[in-house]
Amino acid sequence: MGMGKASSDRRDVVTDRLLGAAEFTHAHWFFGNLYEALVRIPDRVAASEASAELPRSPFGAGSPGRYYAPVAPLNVPLACAALVAGWNRPGSRPWLIVAAASSAVGGAATAYLLRSVNPKLFFSPQPLSAARRKPLLTKWYRVHAIRLAASAIALAAVDRARIGHLADQQRGVR
User: What pTM did the predictor assign?
Assistant: First the structure.
């Protein structure tokens, strides 16, 4: 086995592992986002009074932050790392680009919510009045729709990239 083949094989293993991890984290992200939207978690959290059981904090009981914190920060880096590692594979390259771009869009939407909307909506000492809460919830759901779409596209693209990567390996494309 030549040095080039060993390097290519190693790169394939790294790409496979990155794609597997990216698929897991993006599935976690997508299904968490979907759940939040379907059961309207933001409405419940925004309207809840602070208590010993439910403090109004990013990681208090009932906060989705507990669900996302361990995995969500890995989404964009894994998608970008998979793009770099798998760049030499023509069958997966377009999907890797879509995955990384979609992941970045979703990450940007998340950053916007975390910095601009969530502190006012969820973490004020007391719940906002319904009149002040409603426009923030509307904004939250609109940005969340972008995030949900981006996470769905990224998840589908990672899956397609894995399929393309496997097809390239089977065809012996280097």
Answer: 0.85
d(CA 35, CA 148): 10
What is the band of 68 on the pLDDT scale with cuts at 50, 70, 90?
confident
Joined together, the tokens standing for residue 39 give 């059961």
Q: How far apart, in whole angstroms, are the C-alpha atoms of residue 102 and residue 109?
A: 11
The answer to whether 85 and 18 have CB atoms below 8 angstroms apart is: yes
Measure the N-to-C terminal CA separation of the chain; round to a whole number of Å.
14
Q: What is the DSSP string of 40-102?
A: THHHHHHHPPP-SSS-SSTTSTT-THHHHTTTGGGHHHHHHHHHHHTTT-TTTHHHHHHHHHH
Give dist(CA 29, CA 75) in Å, integer.
8
pLDDT over 60 at 149, yes or no: yes
The SS3 call for residue 129 is coil
Run of H or E including 23: helix 3-39
